[in-house]
Write a structure and sequence with these properties.
Elements lengths: L2 H20 L11 E4 L10 H10 L4 E3 L6 H6 L3 E4 L18 H17 L4 E4 L9 H22 L2 E5 L15 H11 L4 E6 H7 L3 H8 L3 E6 L16 H10 L5 E4 L9 H12 L2
Parallel strand pairs: 1-2, 1-8, 2-3, 4-5, 5-6, 6-7, 7-8
Helix pairs in contact: 4-5, 5-6, 8-9
Length: 285
């Protein structure tokens, strides 16, 4: 059986299983924000199946950055594989802004688009890459050249390529897409409904703040969100500086239909499941 046919068949079987699971008492949420998770929000050492079971029980709908071999497991618990993992779109430090990467990344991203479309995975992640002395305008031009090559396939397949905004101040020194204006310029010039931004709220808060205004002004260029508490990238509660309930209210009021996925790590000594429950409740506006 072709891999794409196997994935589609597995997705259908898992969807049937997930219907039965959904009837067994998951926490009911308002659902205006379609919430997802990354594996880092769970306790270290827990199995992926345990993580999926708890996520589904708490009302989570998506699971980011999990590879194709585990997509049937996510579907078993009614979870959408909401973001293809790192790899096909390059690494954080070495990606689309360097033309010497383009041939290799075009092959891997095209394969990831096809695989995602077959399994109804909505998004594939990519990055600008680090500057390493490159002018930001040159880097933007190089990213645009690459994205223009693959946008037609992404549009035809209904899969969105998401370039992530990251901070270069604390976590990812020298990363090029560290300000929203740079990414919006790239998106406007590519001008595709399937080439958009992964707006990581934690990273954006470190670089320029003004989160809600930035989201409202640029929502048409954003396909996906990540959360995390600042400082420290821990719990999104009153121990950090962002009012996440207000941010989520603003996103919901914009009729955003993509995923908002939690990408923090629980603070030392905090129970992972209790922390996640609090985060979901806070964001369930």
């Amino acid at each position: 059986m072709l891999r794409r046919n196997f994935l589609a068949s597995a997705a259908l079987s898992a969807a049937a299983a997930s219907t039965a699971f959904a009837q067994n008492g998951a926490v009911k949420r308002k659902g205006r924000i379609k919430q997802g998770v990354t594996q880092g929000v769970f306790a270290r050492g827990a199995s992926l199946e345990d993580d999926c079971r708890e996520a589904a029980r708490l009302g989570i709908q998506g699971f980011d950055l999990i590879g194709p071999s585990d997509w049937p497991l996510l579907r078993k618990y009614g979870l959408t594989p909401s973001m293809y993992p790192l790899g096909p779109g390059g690494t954080i430090a070495d990606a689309l802004n360097r033309t010497e990467n383009h041939d290799r990344l075009e092959k891997s991203l095209r394969a990831a688009i096809d695989e995602s479309a077959a399994a109804k995975v909505p998004n594939v992640i990519t990055f600008s890459g680090n500057r390493r002395g490159m002018d930001d305008h040159v880097g933007a031009d190089n990213c645009i050249t690459f994205l223009n090559k693959i946008k037609a396939q992404a549009e035809d397949k209904g899969v969105t390529i998401c370039m992530e905004l990251l901070n270069s101040k604390v976590n990812h020194k020298d990363y090029m897409f560290d300000h929203m204006a740079w990414g919006v310029d790239v998106m406007k010039r590519v001008n595709s409904p399937r080439i958009k931004i992964l707006y990581d709220i934690y990273h954006a808060q470190i670089m320029h703040g003004d989160i809600v205004r930035t989201i409202r002004d640029n929502i048409q260029w954003i396909a996906h969100f990540h959360t995390g508490g600042n400082p420290g990238r821990h719990d999104i509660d009153d121990s950090q500086e962002l009012n996440y309930h207000f941010v989520m209210q603003a996103i919901a009021d914009l009729n955003f239909t993509g995923f908002v996925s939690h990408e923090y790590s629980p603070a030392p000594g905090h129970d992972a499941i209790q922390t996640l429950d609090k985060a979901i409740t806070l964001c369930d506006v």
